[in-house]
Amino acid sequence: MTSSPPPPDPDHKPPEPSGEQRLSARERNELDELRHRVSALETGGPAGAARHHWLRSTGSVLLILLASLLSLLAVVAVWANSIVRDTDRYVATVGPLASDPDVQKAVTNRVTTAVLAQIDVDALVKDLERAASEQGAPPRIATLLGDLGGPITSGLKSLVGDTVQRVVSSKAFDTVWVDANRRAHSALDKALTGNATGAVSAKNGQVTIDVAPIVAQVKDRLVSAGFKPAARIPAVHTDFVVFASKDVGKIKTYLRVLDIIGGWLPVIAVLIAAAGVYLATNRRRALIGAALGVFAAMVVLGIVLAVARAVYLDHLPVGTSEDAAATVFDSLVRFLRAGVRAVGALALVTAAGAFLVGPSRIAVLIRTGCRRGIGALRDVAVSAGLPLGPVGRFVHRFKRWIGAAILAVAAVVLFTWSYPTTWVVVWTVVIVLVAFAIREFLDTGAPSAADTSKPSSPAPSAPTPSA
């Protein structure tokens, strides 16, 4: 006969849950934030310890300043290297000039002058006089023809100018311009050293492009229009000035140096900045300082470009179209400006990210608000039946490693992108934020003691047989 289990003791109380078990999800988040702030404050060390590390702090500041300066040179180096080495990049730089009205006007004037210089108006008048005499025209007609030099010159200038304008404004000119620059790009490296003799040359402080193919097209069109004397126009090699400056020799030297070190300078700048951050006693603040230093360098570079543009336009050779020169300058530095904006945007994003992971009240409020919002969305999804058990525990366990992997992938994408623009940086940041939000959404937190050790229900006792 089995005995029934003893009746429960009315004075016995189940063990109370620990402090961690009594905390709600919101309270656990607040406790984590407080621990994070205390940890961040403790890493700074006491004031006395900081004074003992003044050498480290000084070295960190010097390295960060050097990295900021090198970041400025790195942007210029990458731009110079792309202009010299990348044919597609060069064509993308100068290609739009073919459809620019100011450049078209300058080319039209240059080619028109070159063509008219090859036409002998006096010979044309004499030919008319001879033809009139052969036809038996009165002497007065021959005298009148001798006075037609001015009107003939004006008519020829109008005819040639209109023909050149039609050639330059046609789609065919775009093709000729792009193809000519693509073929000429192989000579650009020599042009930067002043030793070129091809379609691109650099001499007498000018970088020029030979537009002889355009003159040939104008000649053919004039002949087709019935102006037979144009057939006697010889091959004319006339130059369109792309860049003119008395300091072009110095510019060529600087660009040549940047071209040589362009591939390594960005890597060197990043490594020096990383060394400066690692050497600092407060690495988060050092990272913010490094990012702001790079941003300041980009601002300085932008100002230098604006000043250089104004100085360049003020020192143009006589007879050069200022509008066309401004357009060419803006086109040549277009990708440089894009690089400046992209690096500046990335520096600001890095500084903002380093600030938001810190212990300041604003950073804590932003993190807490985002965490609560994502947590509320996760609770709704779980209540609706979304299973996050094993996945949530895995994400919680490796949360820091997952965050590091997201940042590493973003860094690799930006660093290996050929020519990142501001939009590339913006979209990369958006994708990173979405990835972090997904990580937070999947993090269900550490399993509570009630989940890990659920008490099994007591086995039903066997019925007591009656006596």
From TrEMBL:
<keyword id="KW-0812">Transmembrane</keyword>
<feature type="compositionally biased region" description="Low complexity">
    <location>
        <begin position="447"/>
        <end position="456"/>
    </location>
</feature>
<feature type="transmembrane region" description="Helical">
    <location>
        <begin position="61"/>
        <end position="80"/>
    </location>
</feature>
<feature type="transmembrane region" description="Helical">
    <location>
        <begin position="425"/>
        <end position="442"/>
    </location>
</feature>
<feature type="compositionally biased region" description="Pro residues">
    <location>
        <begin position="457"/>
        <end position="467"/>
    </location>
</feature>
<feature type="region of interest" description="Disordered">
    <location>
        <begin position="1"/>
        <end position="25"/>
    </location>
</feature>
<keyword id="KW-1133">Transmembrane helix</keyword>
<feature type="transmembrane region" description="Helical">
    <location>
        <begin position="401"/>
        <end position="419"/>
    </location>
</feature>
<feature type="transmembrane region" description="Helical">
    <location>
        <begin position="287"/>
        <end position="312"/>
    </location>
</feature>
<feature type="transmembrane region" description="Helical">
    <location>
        <begin position="338"/>
        <end position="357"/>
    </location>
</feature>
<protein>
    <recommendedName>
        <fullName>Integral membrane protein</fullName>
    </recommendedName>
</protein>
<feature type="region of interest" description="Disordered">
    <location>
        <begin position="447"/>
        <end position="467"/>
    </location>
</feature>
<feature type="transmembrane region" description="Helical">
    <location>
        <begin position="261"/>
        <end position="280"/>
    </location>
</feature>
<keyword id="KW-0472">Membrane</keyword>
